[in-house]
Amino acid sequence: MSRAGGPPPLCLTVAGSDSGGGAGIQADLKTMLALGVHGMSVVTAVTAQNSLGVTGAWELPAEAVTAQYRAVVDDIGVQAVKTGMLSSAVLVETVAGLLAGTDAPVVVDPVGVSKHGDALLAASALDAVRGELLPLATVATPNLDEVAQLTGVVVEDEDGMRRAADAVLGHGPRWALIKGGHLAAHGGRAVDLLTDGSEELWLRAPRHDNRHTHGTGCTLASAVAAGLAKGLPVPEAVTAAKEYVTGAIAAGFALGGGIGPVDHAWRWR
């Protein structure tokens, strides 16, 4: 936590930009502001996207990603890092090398596809995510599509979520947060599982019928990182993040002609 009169806790997001403002870097920084931490960013890719989908994506060079990271960490410092869209093996390897030399908890959101079903991670990068990025994670936060992409485990029920968590933990993160929001068996009720292989925490949100949920995964992962930057233990950081994102989903609003974003400022309205 910050000292009285000093800066707030420092949190860094390493992710892609969403021009529509609902996900990616934009969602991360809004979340960090809402939760009382100072958000900083390393942009890994620029996307052209809106409420209807992603129409283009351009990856930044590894040297640009490295320069941004070093500029922030070497001067300002950081108390937690969140990773999001790392679209290629080169970027995954670059970011993993940077994280390995940083003494701060890391939340890895292994972004594979967008809310609209657009691919955001090259198949050739999966081995690097498994072998280099996940072992550095304090918490990994895959959704069910990303679990299947990374481990081959197809989840259909809560027992499947346990198997998925075991498979993810097998790649080295300290904790796995399996996001079950895409599980039809939940009937519209988001159920997530946090576990380190011995301790289990189930997080169950009320049912909602709001279709405007763009940015949910980015928001949850960055909210967890914000909690870790504040010094919270992982279960407390995840519980607080789930409460925040549940409110943001309930307040999600229509924007454009497709799926609108969650409302990061719901506590202020």
Describe the structure.
β2 and β3 (53-59) form a beta hairpin. The protein is 36% helix and 20% strand. A 9-stranded mixed sheet has the order 3-2-1-4-5-6-7-8-9, with helices on both faces. The protein has helices at residues 24-34, 62-75, 89-100, 126-133, 144-151, 158-169, 216-229, 234-250, and strands at 10-18, 38-50, 53-59, 80-83, 106-108, 139-140, 175-179, 191-195, 200-204. With 269 residues, the chain is α/β, with parallel strands linked by helices. It has 8 helices and 9 strands. α1 (24-34) packs across α7 and α5 crosses α6. It has one domain (10-268): UDP-N-acetylmuramoyl-L-alanine:D-glutamate ligase, CATH 3.40.1190. The protein is globular.
